[in-house]
Specification:
The chain is of the alpha/beta class. It has 16 helices and 22 strands. Helix 3 runs antiparallel to helix 6 and helix 4 packs parallel to helix 5.
């Protein structure tokens, strides 16, 4: 597959070629990876019609049948890790070792989805809390919500897409996935695995789309849930246009890290380098702002700069590369202007330099103005600011001084500070003694403020993709006894 030039799209269980072509290029060198298609009105309606038609069949599948399909997808992905990772590295510029890890984690997500499909539980609720409800018992059960629309971004083109597809399959919902136009090939390959695993025909469609078709997907009331991962501006606009459907948004971040006076400095430096520069910072939970206790500030900076300077920036297909390119030239130009703005405002660059093509070097800034875009906005680039603090409360306030609230990391060996951070940080997740870039696929994941709405993670996604229904059972003998 990696050497193919022409690539069909997966529409209603069939491999088709649309009228409009989409050329996918390697951001590292500009070479064409493949030419695929974008779905037009005909392909879109075929996919929706097939999803509606297959819905009763999906709802009728037993939990063990859904689980078995998902486990076959897991096995299929693990059998093709090297192939899929190479596709991912070529189309998204992700270093090959990170690409392989993403594919393996995606297989793990399907495994967890298989397990969750077997435990979509209800409960028994006693309703006889007053005399009038004597003899009544409630039984709850979750039912598939219906058609799911998924829209996923380029930065984890399989990992984030799987967090929409796998729970939909576990819940018994048909899903139409719009993968990123910059990197659609990885999920088209995953669609081959899903097809081979025996997913009912039409239950999954993977289709790059024009903006017009994407807008139709968002507003289409035949879909009962929209799950979007991407920028805040686009996500909140989609929510406004989504009508009555349920909406889950996993949006941007501006992740902060606190390095307390009691922290293990070696560990804090090692993990902060990882969190700031993994995949060239193009992760919504990338470390962007680091706050270090003033007693450790100078030593932390020395170690942080030294270790960051050893990172190797190069060809994503080279196993030695730590950093690949940014996704495109406009992203490079944007972050370059933000860094220049901060330096003009008084920031000092301790590490960095000019871009080379789409490659932007690891950049460390100190004394950045608090109103500069590298501090206030989501950088989505290998750029991090470092600032000192004198009190833990002040550090928490600094992290909270943001429109975003996805995750935060706190390096501390003070239990009181860890507990305080958990209660006071305005984020969806607090990670103690690690960076906010940490995520495992079965934990609840999402943010507050401009960072999103709802939670992903297999169990929580399945809850969003199902409707709770109650059955009330009445024992008429009890009613007769009460009446008598």
């Amino acid at each position: 597959m990696a050497s193919e030039i022409s690539r069909p799209i997966f529409v209603a269980g069939e491999w088709v070629r649309g009228e409009q072509q989409l050329t996918v290029t390697n951001p590292a060198n500009g070479e064409v990876v493949a030419v695929t298609s974008v779905a037009g009105p005909d392909e879109y309606e075929r996919a929706v019609a097939a999803a509606l038609a297959v819905r009763p069949q999906l709802s009728a599948l037993a939990s063990n049948e859904r689980s078995a399909i998902l486990r076959r997808v897991e096995a299929g992905l693990l059998a093709r890790v090297d192939e899929i990772a190479t596709i991912l590295a070529r189309e998204a510029g992700k270093p090959i070792k990170d690409a392989a890890s993403e594919v393996e984690r995606s297989a793990f997500a399907f495994r967890v989805a298989a397990e969750e499909a077997e435990r979509i539980y209800g409960e028994v609720i006693p309703l006889d809390l007053n005399t009038a409800s004597r003899g009544r018992t409630g039984i709850t059960k979750r039912f598939p919500i219906g058609l799911v629309a998924g829209i996923s971004p380029f930065n984890l083109p399989v990992g984030l897409a799987v967090h929409k597809v796998a729970p939909a399959m576990a819940a018994g919902c048909p899903i139409l996935l719009k993968p990123p136009s910059a990197a659609p090939l990885t999920m088209l390959t995953v669609a081959e695995v899903i097809e081979a695993a025996g997913a009912p025909r039409g239950s999954v469609s993977v289709m790059p789309m024009t903006r017009e078709m994407g807008n139709r997907l968002v507003a289409d009331d035949r879909f009962k849930l929209l799950s979007f991962t991407g920028s805040p501006e686009v996500g909140w606009d989609m929510k406004a246009r989504a009508g009555k459907k349920r909406v889950v948004l996993e949006l941007g971040g501006n992740a902060g890290v606190i390095v307390d006076r009691s922290a293990d400095l070696d560990w804090a430096v090692k993990r902060s380098v990882y969190g700031a520069f993994k995949y060239a910072g193009q992760i919504c939970i990338s470390v962007q702002r680091i706050f270090v206790h003033e007693d450790l500030y100078s030593e932390f900076l020395d170690r942080f700069v030294a270790k960051s300077s050893t990172l190797i920036m190069g060809d994503p297909l080279d196993p030695a590369s730590d950093l690949g390119p940014m996704i495109d030239g406009s992203s490079v130009a944007r972050i370059g202007s933000w860094v220049d703005e901060a330096i003009t405002g008084g920031a000092k660059m301790l590490l960095g330099g000019p871009a080379s093509g789409n490659f932007f070097p690891p950049t460390i800034l100190v004394d950045a103005p608090t109103d500069s875009r590298v501090v206030r906005e989501e950088a989505f680039a290998p750029v991090v600011t470092v600032s000192p603090f004198s009190s833990f409360d002040a550090a928490v306030d600094a992290v909270n001084d943001s429109a975003f609230g996805l995750q935060a990391g706190v390096f501390t060996n003070d239990l009181g500070n860890a507990w305080s951070a958990f209660h006071r940080l305005e984020v969806g997740g607090v990670v103690i003694n690690d960076v906010p870039t940490y995520r495992i696929d079965h934990m609840p994941y999402g943010g507050v403020k401009d960072s999103g709405l709802g939670r992903e993670g297999l169990r929580w996604s399945i809850e969003d993709m199902t409707e709770l229904r109650i059955l009330v059972m009445s024992d008429r003998r009890s009613d007769d006894a009460t009446a008598g």
